């Protein structure tokens, strides 16, 4: 580790002088200095500011939907670039992990760890954040907070090179991907059928229903899936997301019962920690088994991949960033399984997801959250949503989205500075 690894900057903003960068009056580097820097003659750019913003709708309902609030992380560089990222976890917890002051060399808030660093060095910064948060991190929400930062750094990287992130990841394989409408079950089979009809009429050829009341009883579970199939008709792809409700034996029984409804996959039948159960189930299930949305980071995915426990690995960019999602992609493709995004939050993560999905060896489906929440649809000026069941891959630099500042002002409840 070099000097920057051991010298933690404890102030909120590291002075530009300390970074060895001369400024040009208005706080911007001159074109000449930038050109020189890019030739490797000077430090090019540095992370100067990391701001968390928590947005929340007024009336939050008790339901399994993370599109009712959001934490966005905005990273600014000393040469005027801004990248945005998002973590899908409890916004206040993520903010605390980023805002926390230095406490210990391996217990330090993420802002302190990355201030003054070069924003393009994403792999090194990922490893640095991992090491410097060991006493409270290594898993779960700390990795999600790191992912928001990583997403913002890749946005900066794209803007710096004037290229879309999919190109920096190695190149998109497609210009568009078939999307599935992702929505919650109705209260019973009848209501679920009505929901299904709505999204097929909206142009989707694949729909996923999830979570409650699945897991209530065998009768209720089968009624929900029967209703879903009735609503979609015989041709559309039906995906079922159980929401971690059964043990492996019950899940196998349900998989066999659901087979008659021709489901594309059975998602999260087991609790996320039950890797043995997933390996056992996948060996016996007549329908493909999908999971992975709870996993944060490459180490979290490792037992599932090593055991070949799943047919479809669902990776959430707001819990894995681009850095670890790329690593996970390579490992899953190595063992011959499929990949899909998980995404149930704002257009920032949707944009990140479509960049990543477009680079997969087999970009067969894209999860498109269709929750009716302003945070899902209005946070960015660009609408990141499928049209006629297909989502286009953006080609603008970085993530390709711009924040609607008026929207942020309206829904902002907390901000770090
Ligand atoms: Mg799910």
Helix content: 25-40%
The rounded distance between the terminal residues' Cα atoms is: 29 Å
Give the helix/strand class.
Answer: alpha/beta
Morphology call: globular
Largest sheet: 9 strands, mixed
Whole-number mean pLDDT: 91
How does this model look, in words?
With 417 residues, the protein is an alpha/beta fold. It has a domain at 168-402: TIM Barrel. It contains 16 helices and 15 strands. The protein has helices at residues 3-6, 31-38, 91-99, 110-114, 122-132, 140-161, 165-168, 189-201, 218-232, 248-258, 275-284, 298-306, 317-334, 347-357, 374-377, 405-411; strands at 47-56, 69-77, 82-87, 102-104, 107-108, 176-184, 206-210, 237-241, 263-267, 289-291, 312-316, 338-342, 366-369, 390-392, 412-415. Helix 5 (122-132) runs antiparallel to helix 6, helix 8 packs parallel to helix 9 (218-232) and helix 13 (317-334) runs parallel beside helix 14 (347-357). The longest helix is centred in the middle third of the chain and has 22 residues, at 140-161. The two termini are 29 Å apart. The relative contact order is 0.14. Mean pLDDT is 91; it is low at 1-29. It binds magnesium ion. Residues 210, 241, 267-268, 293 line the site of magnesium ion.
What can be said about this structure in brief?
The chain is α/β, with parallel strands linked by helices and 417 residues long.
Question: Which tags fit this structure?
Answer:
417 residues; alpha/beta; TIM Barrel; 4-stranded antiparallel beta sheet; 16 helices; globular; disordered N terminus
